[in-house]
Amino acid sequence: MMSEIQVHTIARQMLEKHGFAAIAQAAQEAQACESRGEAEEAKEWRHIADAMKIMKGPHQS
Hints:
Acetyltransferase
């Protein structure tokens, strides 16, 4: 299991490299892991996606 610091580091790096498309990419990775039966890895990818959503900030209307 990744530490919170590792999760946020990966999330920040993915956002810097891919922009907000990184959130969708992390969600796809989570689904791929689940389809392979890798529940713990899927949980980590969802945690990374959640961290990116927090970094992105709230939606503005």
